[in-house]
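Supplementary Methods S3. Complex input for the G3D-bound model.
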Amino acid sequence: MNYDDKCQLLIIGDSTVGKTSILSKYSSKTFNENYLATVGLDFFTKDEMIDNKIIRIKIWDTAGQERYKALTRCFFQKAQGVIIVFDVCNQKSFNDLHFWIESMNTQLSEDIDSIPVIIIGNKIDLPKRVVSKETAEKYAKENNFHYFETSAKTGDGVDNAIKEIARKVINNGGKKNGKDILRLSKVEKKSKCC
Ligand code: G3D
Ligand code: MG
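Predicted complex, serialized as structure tokens:
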């Protein structure tokens, strides 16, 4: 299928907060691929109609290495937008947001202010919530990010959050070149990246 523009996103956050579940929910009506298993990355793709244009949204997901808080610079390098997820029932995953923001700050190849970043509070379907919406919104605002809430279980809020960050990337003029991480990684191997 042809598309008018593309948008390359990353999803990060503590292990078990629901990153992969969010993407599975989001892309279940289309397709997902387990493409770069050898280097521990998955990507999910979906074509969306945004402002009358077909946008190919690609979202790169870690495959467990976030547990060690050891994401490589290459993972961050081609991001046009970043989704940071925490679990509203897990205080530590909220406290760790500062770590993921700091990781982006040090590993993104350009200024964090120049690409859209959103924070998602996930698992809002569960009753034992410990991080309130107000607390999370305040934190996001202090960091100049938009805040969304989702349930990957019911699907609540998932499409809206991802479409919004994709829209921001497109409106941002696709700050980065948006080249495919996979294709670039072949070139970058020579320069000892990835
Ligand atoms: P990760 O990719 O961030 O590591 P996963 O997280 O997507 O693997 O999800 C971890 C666990 O949380 C999974 O449970 C998954 O089903 C559950 N989960 C993810 N999102 C939600 C949600 O919105 N609501 C609820 N209730 N559960 C969610 P299992 O038991 O399979 O390990
Ligand atoms: Mg996962």
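The helical segments are 19-27, 73-77, 91-95, 97-107, 133-142, 158-171, 181-189. The chain has a mean pLDDT of 81.
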